[in-house]
Amino acid sequence: MSLEPPVRPAQTARRTAGPRLGAHMSVAGGLPLAVDRAVAHGCQAMQIFARNANRWEGRRLAADEIRAFRSKARAAGLHPVVSHAGYLINLASDAPALRRRSLAAMADEIDRAEALGLLGVVLHPGSHTDGRAADGLVRVADALVELLESRPRGRTLVILEHTAGQGTALGRTFEQLAEIIERARGHRRLGVCLDTCHLLAAGYDIRSPEGWAATMASFTQVIGLRRLKAWHLNDSKRPLGSRVDRHEHIGRGQLGLEPFRRIVNDARFRGLPMLLETPKEEQRGKAALVDRLDARNLQTLRDLLDAGA
Fold first, then answer.
1. Tally of domains in the chain
2. Torsion sign (Cα): 216, 217, 222, 226
3. Is 108 helix (H, G, I), strand (E, B) or coil?
4. In a domain, 276, yes or no
5. pLDDT digits over 107-149, tens only?
6. What is the distance between the alpha carbons of residues 31 and 39, in angstroms, rounded to a whole number?
7. Residue 6 lies in a domain
8. pTM, 2 dp
């Protein structure tokens, strides 16, 4: 069952009429604590790691932890919630051992997201390892078909993240994402996540009104707005077309504030999660309930939304 709880009356009509702002939250201490952190930051939506992002094996989720997470998220009116797939997963690889491990890990990501009632799993398409991007795209599509069709009753989405295109990473262009979706027979459980830092680094100049309009016109034509399920809001340390993925605080990088003002006030994105992945405070031990840097970035976005409301 998808986690789509009703919005609590305490949330104002103005806030709920726009995007649902949130951030990637730590799951240190258990998944339910991620909800507590999101609530402490005033989040409406959230992203988490449902398993360790840097290991092949994930710890088993106990039934009571799953129930507590779902219950807390529902009570808080926190939705949509998405997970981000682990960084080791590479569905574009032609290396048999890596592909087997990637398929198994992604299957576990999908199953965890289903159990937790998440909207979907955000996934980097992967990197081609044989020098041929076209072959890598086919391998990603084939893997997604296998994973989703083996779970015909599932509702969790796989949300392909547009990438900066560093090295041999796939997904730098809208055309590459569209090809994956097309080769996966347009599966209804495939969506797309756009990242503001990645867009700029990949060469999409969203800094000016004209560049923003051209970028979204291209996305609409090549992929279609109905596939857009989430935004990652990050400024960029590196310039246009650098193809280097380095996130910066909102308004303090190469993008500046105006692109974010346009995005959060764009009526086409009402109800979509817009999630921070900006740098966090350095913590010793368990993550604090409130990260001051997340709080500052979220307030910056809220101020931009207020100014455009």
1. 1
2. positive
3. helix
4. yes
5. 999 999 999 999 999 999 999 987 799 999 999 999 999 999 9
6. 13
7. no
8. 0.93
